[in-house]
Amino acid sequence: MSLEKLAEARQAAQRGDRVLARKLLSQVLLADRSNEQAWLLMARLAETEQQVIECLEWAQRINPSNASTRNALRILKRQHSSPLVTAPAMRTSTNVQAVQAVVPPSLISEKLTPLTRADSKAIPPPHRKTNWALLVGTAIVLLVVLIAAVGPQIAPQDPMEEHPILQVGDEWFIPPFDAFQVPGYILGSDEFGRDLFSRVLYAVRPTLIMVAIVAMVRLFIGTLIGLGAGWSNGKVGRFLDMLISAALSVPILMVALGAIAMVGAELGLTAFIVGLSINGWGETARFVREQTRLIKGQLYIESAHALGASTVRILVQHILRQVMPMVWMLFAFEISGTMMVTAGLGFLGYFIGGDVWVEVRDFVSRRISGAPELGQMLATSWVNLLRPWPLVLTGSVIFFTILGFNLLGDGLRFRLNPEYINRNSLMARLSNRFSFWFEQSVSYPASTWLRANRLRPVLIAVAVLLLAGSLYLYRARYTSQGVQATLSVPGGHLWASERIDPFGTKLIEDSGISEPQQVWQVSFPAGASGSPVISASGTIYVASLDAHLMAFDPDGTLVWEAGLPAVPYGPLAIGPDGDIYVADTRGGLSALSPDGHLLWTYTTEAFGKAEHGAIVAPNGTIYYLLEDARGDTLTALHPGGELLWSTKTGTRRADSALRLSADASQIYIRSAVINTEDGSISDLTIPTQGGAGIAGHEQLFVGADGRPYLLAGHIVMQWEHTQQGFTVLQSAEWDYHGVGFSQYTQFPVDAVVTPAGNIGLIYSGFYGATRIVWLESLGKFLGNTFSPFYQDTHFVAVDGKNTTILCGIAPAQDSEATMCAAYKLDVEDSLWQYILGVEIDGVVGAAMAPGRLYVITGDGNLTAIGNSASSQAPASAP
Amino acid sequence: MLRFILRRLAILPFALVLVHFLGFAYAYFARPIRAARTPYLRQQVENPLPLLEIYWQHVEDIINGSLLQPPEIGPGIGSFAENMWKATIASAGLLAIALALSIVIGVLLGLMAVRNQPPGVRSWLTPLSTVGLAMPGFYIGSLSILAIVYLALGKGPGGEQTLPLNGFGWDRHLVLPVLALTLRPMVQIAQVTANMLVGELGKQYIVAARSYGHTWRDIRWRQAMRNIISGVILSIASTFRLMVGELVVIEWLFKWPGLGNKLATTLVPGQTSTSLGATTYFLDPPTVAFDIAIIALLFLFTDLLASVLVRAVDPRLRVQDEPYPAGGTL
């Protein structure tokens, strides 16, 4: 049938009846689109050059190996100036030859007349106008996005590093530095001496992310309301119209100001999304409403109605599709509009994460700002009227960003206007070429293959899903959870070593104390060696300096007393099987059974003392560090007392309790990492090693969430040991300057991480009060608590609700009192406090059990503090 | 027309009372919420009475004239009403001057932009409007302050006095705030005027007018302008809203004691919080309510004025409000 019609078409073409020939060929091609001969003949009969090209492209798609077709296409495309201009005659001598080269000569019945150059000129050229707005806007937006992406990496300085005074060569500079005044500070500094250039590079990213999210929300709401208002005629339409008018009539800045003031800027992005979206969607809604009304009047919408299409279907399939190309233009305008209001808000003091207060001195709190953000920079840069440069600089960044997005929006609007579309532009040609390539190489083969193989894609999709799911589960099960496993004290003891457990988490479930009272007290005239330990049954073990180890019941009754081979030194430790380990002044270690029998004693020639006692791994291996100015020695012993290994750690007087990693494969001593298998030192270079000011102040530790952390100066980083070495996963960087700490001094003495990931930094100085700063895992400042302890504060423990228990010396009227107290985040005063005595030389050690706090004070007393005083004091002191 | 004006005027008091109550309610609820987040205010700010009761007391104060009495905290402190009046006058004056300048310069620029001779305006209006619309008000303000500071530094001590950088006064103090407030609305009006004129000048009746020998000036002012004036007036009304939005920032920047500054003072948090407690205006419900109500009055009045003017100058719109005469024909 097709062959017959093709022959008829050929005859008609030879007769010169082109209309009939085309009609017959159309029928052939409708029945069989893969007929190459029919397409070639159709090309021969085509009216315009564009049609010739389309026919030849079909022919080439069917038979890609036809070189004649390919050559003809190449020649035609090269000469084809405007693919969409449908002028009646576009033949030149060259393309006639090209067509003749591919179309069989038998088909040629008439001589093709090439167009002369004069004829070509008669065809109006396409409108050519360079879309400068689009070009310049795209360039600026790309630059801004680039800065947002790589800005922090290329910033020459730490954006939060303050310089109260700066020496460059022989010159001293006091902030704020002017632009180009100080080498390394090309744009100058703010009043704290922070590099403005670096701050700007850091600030663009968070601002742009926030603005983009707000713009998307506004776009979504505006499109939805605009569609509804444009489509509905009844009450709903009138209501939505009224809503749009109301949204447009009230200044966005005022609404946002009021809303964010109420919601609270410290809520971060949420507050800004709410504040900027309440009526910010008005412009988009108005635009979409007008477009919807225009499209609604089109005939094809009426046809869709007549065919029974539902309203939702028409809105989604027809109207939304028409509106969608304009979304990018609207998005660009929304971003610039949001940026404009955000700038105003920032200038007035509302920025992401604002409204966080810290007490900087008595009766004065100050709003702090974290990592730089453009709004925040605006809020904090307007300090001195005579120094507007920081404000002008930040304003300039905002201005150029708004300008870029405005130009981009204008350019896109221009580009989407059919009156001005330049179809011969480079972009248009590239776009056409890409569309053709995509259709020919991807879309058409894919749809053909999908039609032919309906089952396979489903199977492949299922396989991919299964693979992805397995990978996810594998990572969740063996990677993440393995690290995040909840840590527990080996053997289920209540207090197994100086820092509760061998991991050093300092985490307790709950202190259980609310109204502290002394439950009982015993005295050791010779004094105690260090912190006690508490077994799973609640027995308290204490070593006295007269070489005795004692066991007490929870009610204070002495259970047994045993002699030690040497004078004990430092805190005790208890193993999973209940054996007690006591280090001594000679560097040795003794093990005693739970009933007080000496099991073994390990002696060594190594120098030093076990200042922080031993820790016992879950497998029973005992580790203890002998600290000495000539070099520290870490020793690992089998549970039976045999030496497993002993190694020099490379540290000197580390003054650090040992921390066992969550998988017990490594031990952290300051910044040194020792492998527990053989005692080798792990080749791990931490990023702050050798850094000015921070070097020597690093501490690797394990959080209660089981993850490894690094405390470096004021910053806490979560890290992991990969093949690349020390890899930082996230860093809790925060504005420690804002709360009154300097960069190179007053570092925290300890740090803990709760199971929820909150970070507690304990600051304690000889002259200053003790302060606990709480941060979220990414550094957001949660708050801080102050305690009156000012000397040798003993950080006892922390619970999962950000409550810390501290003991130490605090001023009391005309003397110094040794006391313990509990502090909770967001509670200004202590939850409770208990004074142990006055002028008693501080705290030697402490341990906690549910509802009990056992404290050994410098005067040789072990005091049990609990809620109830019902328990009787022990009959006699040992 | 008269019916239209009366109808709108009748709505005005109800709208103002509603806005006043909403502003009061907002401050009433927001005050303790914000105070709870601010150290040293947590225990100090509490609402002693329910909203309706406290609002009714405030209404009674308005009726019996208590707000006209100066507070008993010291000499020289005006009454609430006096303070609000002064703020309103300060803002209204600033807005009026800025709006008048925006309209005059904007419309003139728009008219010049469609002229072929001289060609200057035409070529630089588009870049100017693009740049102007991308400039936040505070940025224009800070740029002008920077310029003044460098000018003063350049002149050295004893040099000629430059423009004041902040403060209030119906003199040179106006220059910087008016400049910062005028630029964006001005370019917006110019852009709208130019775009509408371009569309209008392409119409057939303009060709006919030219063929009758009318001059371009005559065509622009007498014919084209008449047809676009309603659109220009509506765009002026919308730029006025933009201007009021910017007013908060500009008055805050230049310490201009107007409504915007007052609103910012009530809403903007300070950098520090001390045991001295909250400032007098910290989310003060009467202040917020009056502030919002006066700003709403400015909006509504501008809207009414624009609607009346549009109907006055464009007969096509006026027809919509006229009742049909007997017999069903106009």
Structural descriptors:
heterodimer, A: 878 residues, alpha+beta, 37% helix, elongated, B: 330 residues, mainly alpha, globular
- Ranges of chain A where pLDDT stays below 50 over 5 or more residues in a row are 81-96, 101-127, 479-485, 870-878
Shape of chain A: elongated
How would you describe the shape of chain B? globular
Tell me the structural class of chain A.
alpha+beta
Mean pLDDT of chain B: 82
What portion of residues of chain A belong to β-strands? 15-25%
Compute the separation of the termini of chain B in Å: 16 Å
| DSSP helical segment count of chain B | 11
Strand content of chain B: under 5%
Radius of gyration of chain B: 25 Å
Biggest β-sheet strands, sense, barrel of chain A = 5 strands, mixed
Helix content of chain B: over 70%
* CA-based gyration radius of chain A: 39 Å
Largest interface, chains and sizes: A-B, 50 and 50 residues
Q: Count the beta strands of chain A.
A: 36
Spans where pLDDT lies below 50 across 5 or more residues of chain B? 326-330
Provide a short characterization of the protein structure.
Chain A has about 900 residues and is an alpha+beta fold.
Q: What does this 3D model show about the protein?
A:
The complex is a heterodimer of chains A (about 900) and B (about 325). Residues about 80-95, about 100-125, about 480-485 and about 870-878 of chain A have low confidence and may be disordered. The N and C termini of chain A lie far apart (about 115 Å). In chain A, a hairpin with a 5-residue loop joins strand 11 and strand 12 (about 580-585). Chain A has about 900 residues and is α+β, with helices and mostly antiparallel strands. In chain B, helix 3 (about 80-115) packs parallel to helix 6 (about 175-200), helix 5 (about 135-155) crosses helix 8 and helix 10 crosses helix 11 (about 315-320). Chain B has about 325 residues and is an all-alpha fold. Chain B has helices at about 1-35, 50-65, 80-115, 120-135, 135-155, 175-200, 205-210, 215-255, 260-265, 285-315, 315-320, and one strand spanning about 270-275. Mean pLDDT of chain B is about 80; it is low at about 325-330. At the A-B interface, helix 11, helix 16, strand 3, strand 4 and helix 18 of A face helix 1, helix 4, helix 5, helix 8 and helix 9 of B.
